[in-house]
Design a protein that fits this description.
Radius of gyration: 18 Å
Number of strands: 6
Largest sheet: 6 strands, mixed
Strand order of the largest sheet: 5-4-1-2-3-6
Strand content: 15-25%
CATH architecture: 2-Layer Sandwich
Shape: globular
CATH topology: Nucleotidyltransferase, domain 5
Low-confidence stretches: none
Number of helices: 7
Number of domains: 1
Mean pLDDT: 92
Length: about 240
């Protein structure tokens, strides 16, 4: 399948998510009770953390989190072009992302590609679209589709080769495939704090773009093709949507 893949039909993406509120105390009372139930299940054996202390993990769950950035990348000849949708208003960035999908990625030949995206990015986006009262673009909507009709690629799923025991991180794959990555001053666990305390959305968007590029480079390694050269990477003028 990968040998016949037309990379210009693939939209690579990554998302960054945060808790919907800056602190547990700011949550509505009805959601606090539901988070308490969720957090009790998240507690590891011997972990002595309150549901308030565990609230930092809320961004992982679409019911308690929100998307603050979606970065996308696509091949245009030898160029790899990047763009980010980000901001405080989740509905606006989802509307703009949906417009991109509906206009340019709306045929059976098109594919979406991410890392661990089948379990995280794609369902998270679809769920948040429903919460925001938005229609789900056809390429993201799995209802009524047969497995071979689903237009999703997942670089972690491809790495598994049927072995579902372990999670393999994006950073580990870039290391073992000798994919050059710039040193980052943040990682995914810091995004919530950077968003709520530092209010630095541009920093989050730049980090998200780097992960999107890494996904594309990993897929190229899987295909046995040369990596995208630095001079062929077209970065956007980062500005809030």
């Amino acid at each position: 399948m990968l040998q016949k893949l037309n990379l210009e039909n693939v939209l690579f993406l990554d998302i960054e998510t945060v808790p919907q509120h800056s602190t547990y105390a700011e949550m509505p009372d009805n959601l606090k009770k539901l988070w308490d139930i969720k957090a009790d299940r998240l507690s590891k054996p011997g972990e002595e953390k309150s549901t308030q202390e565990l609230y930092g993990r809320a961004g992982i769950y679409a019911e308690f989190g929100k998307i603050v950035c979606i970065s996308v990348g696509f091949m245009n000849g030898v160029e790899f072009r990047l763009k980010s949708f980000f901001g405080d208003d989740e509905k606006i960035l989802l509307e703009e992302f949906s417009a991109l999908l509906n206009k340019h990625y709306n045929t059976a030949q098109h594919l979406l590609c991410g890392h661990n995206s089948k379990e995280f990015d794609f369902p998270y986006i679809a769920r948040r679209m429903l919460v925001n009262g938005l229609p789900i673009p056809q390429i993201l909507n799995l209802q009524g589709k047969k497995p071979w009709e689903i237009q999703h690629l997942d670089t972690m799923d491809l790495w598994r080769f049927g072995d579902y025991k372990n999670y393999t991180s994006l950073s580990l794959l870039t290391a073992i495939f000798d994919i050059p990555t710039p040193k980052d001053d943040i990682d995914g666990s810091m995004v919530g704090e950077i968003y709520w305390k530092e209010k630095d959305l541009e920093r989050i968007a730049i980090y998200c773009q780097k992960d999107t590029l890494a996904v594309a480079q990993i897929l190229l390694r899987y295909m046995g093709r040369p990596l995208i050269k630095e001079e062929h990477i077209v970065l956007p003028q980062v500005s809030e949507e």
